[in-house]
Design a protein that fits this description.
Layout: H1 2-8, H2 13-20, E1 36-38, H3 43-55, E2 60-64, H4 71-85, E3 90-94, H5 102-112, E4 117-121, H6 130-139, E5 144-146, H7 153-162, E6 167-168
Parallel strand pairs: 1-2, 2-3, 3-4, 4-5, 5-6
Helix pairs in contact: 1-2, 3-4, 4-5
Length: about 180
């Protein structure tokens, strides 16, 4: 919803959010495109949602791969999404910690890397720990991001210390 309001105001989302929080952004602030979320277990439905999002102007799609069923179907389910989105669209995965261990996660990431994915968010459960994330990151063909596994600035420091991820997903939040 915030993205829609920012677009109506003719502002990038980061500027619109900063204005509401009374934060002065430095000149040349980085604009991070908002992604559409594709959350469908059937490949054809996911592909239709991807096409719809692209038609609405999204240039980044985040596909919830944890809902796509058994791992053997994951790469099959991904192909129609990539084909619907086209090569210019940035695709991200979000496993929501659904892959049970490092071996399963690495197998999935190896299969899915063929579809030019920008990163995979939360491939392991948050309870796996930063050491396991770091070990997976060393072997992953896809950059990794932490989301549910990072809730505080201290968590961010630990992610950095362990080199557990290539990115940390930050979501705007306002108390109250």
């Amino acid at each position: 919803m915030a993205d829609v309001l920012a677009k109506r105001a003719g502002q990038p989302l980061c500027r619109w959010l900063a204005d509401r929080a009374a934060i002065d952004l430095p000149r040349g602030a980085v604009v991070i495109p908002v992604n559409a979320v594709i959350d469908a277990s059937e490949p054809a439905v996911a592909a239709a949602h991807a096409l719809s999002a692209v038609d609405r102007g999204y240039t980044v799609l985040k596909v919830k791969v944890g809902v796509m069923g058994p791992l053997r179907q994951t790469s099959h389910g991904w192909r129609p999404v990539r084909e619907s989105a086209g090569p210019a669209i940035v695709l991200r995965l979000d496993a929501n910690g659904a892959w049970s261990d490092q071996h399963v996660a690495l197998t999935a990431l190896e299969r899915l890397s063929a579809f030019d994915v920008a990163l995979c968010e939360q491939p392991l459960a948050a309870t796996a720990g930063y050491q396991r994330f770091a070990e997976l990151r060393c072997h992953s063909p896809v950059p990794l991001a932490v989301d549910e596994g990072c809730r505080s600035i201290e968590d961010v420091r630990e992610v950095i210390r362990w080199r557990a991820a290539d990115a940390v997903v930050v979501k705007p939040w306002s108390p109250g």
